[in-house]
């Protein structure tokens, strides 16, 4: 039975990074299962979930560490996936003027009521009219089954007013 591992990858962006990583995984009998990768400020960052035969773990770890000589830093951890987290999947969408602390304040509100962030994408971009920087966040979150969703929406509306942003939270069907 294969063992699941999660790889965290960081390198200065250049062509062939994903190919090099995929080559090492395949050379050790690994199966590339899930990944999320992006180029951010000239750096390449990614997370990858791979299934590998138990007998290949040590060799894979050594091969991934050797990529450091090519400027590719990889951290490998065995996953402890207990299946999907119970709860209600919802989508959170936020847009407003950019300023420090938005992610901190939103994540604190969510964590305070037991909401787990499954996926988060953020970006800063120039506004169309004023040219001022706007901040956008899109997140898939898992709401605890016993959560009062209307109460959370109210808390998020209060926070949106304080942060001067627009926030919506919609259960996914």
Topology of helices and strands:
Elements: E1 3-12, H1 17-27, E2 31-40, E3 43-52, H2 57-66, E4 72-78, E5 88-97, H3 102-112, E6 116-126, E7 133-143, H4 149-163, E8 165-171
Antiparallel strand pairs: 1-3, 1-4, 2-3, 5-7, 5-8, 6-7
Helix pairs in contact: 3-4
Low-pLDDT segments = none
Calculate the mean pLDDT score and round it: 94
Mind telling me the CATH class of the largest domain? Alpha Beta
CATH topology value of the largest domain:
Alpha-Beta Plaits
Structural class: alpha+beta
Helix content: 25-40%
Number of strands: 8
Cα radius of gyration in angstroms: 20 Å
**Share of β-strand residues:** 35-45%
Oligomer: single chain
- Number of separate domains: 2
- Inertia-based shape: flat
Distance between the termini: 34 Å
Summarize the helix and strand pattern as letters: EHEEHEEHEEHE
> Which strands sit side by side, in order, in the main sheet?
2-3-1-4
CATH architectural category of the largest domain: 2-Layer Sandwich
CATH level-4 homologous superfamily of the largest domain:
ACT domain
Number of discrete helical segments: 4
How can the largest sheet be summarized?
A: 4 strands, antiparallel
Could you explain the architecture of this structure?
The protein has 173 residues and is of the alpha+beta class. It folds into 2 domains: 3-78, ACT domain (Alpha-Beta Plaits); 88-171, 2-Layer Sandwich (Alpha-Beta Plaits), CATH 3.30.70.260. The chain has helices at 17-27, 57-66, 102-112, 149-163, and strands spanning 3-12, 31-40, 43-52, 72-78, 88-97, 116-126, 133-143, 165-171. The strands form 2 sheets. Strands 2-3-1-4 form a 4-stranded antiparallel beta sheet, covered by helices on one side. A hairpin with a 2-residue loop joins strand 2 (31-40) and strand 3 (43-52). Helix 3 runs antiparallel to helix 4 (149-163). The protein is flat, with a radius of gyration of 20 Å.
């Amino acid at each position: 039975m294969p063992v699941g591992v999660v790889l965290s990858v960081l390198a200065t962006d250049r062509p062939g990074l994903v190919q090099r990583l995929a080559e090492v995984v395949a050379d050790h009998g690994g199966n590339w299962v899930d990944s999320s990768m992006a180029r951010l400020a000239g750096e390449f960052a990614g997370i990858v979930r791979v299934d590998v035969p138990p007998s290949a773990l040590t060799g894979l770890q050594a091969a991934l560490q050797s990529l450091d000589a090519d400027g590719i830093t990889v951290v490998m951890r065995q996953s402890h996936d207990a299946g999907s987290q119970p709860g209600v999947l919802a989508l959170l969408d936020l847009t407003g003027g950019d300023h420090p602390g938005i992610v901190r304040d939103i994540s604190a509100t969510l964590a305070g009521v037991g909401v787990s962030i499954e996926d988060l994408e953020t970006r800063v971009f120039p506004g169309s009219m004023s040219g001022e920087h706007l901040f956008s966040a899109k997140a898939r979150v898992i709401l605890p089954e016993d959560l009062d969703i209307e109460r959370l929406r109210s808390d998020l509306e209060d926070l949106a007013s304080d942060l001067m942003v627009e926030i919506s939270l919609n259960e996914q069907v």
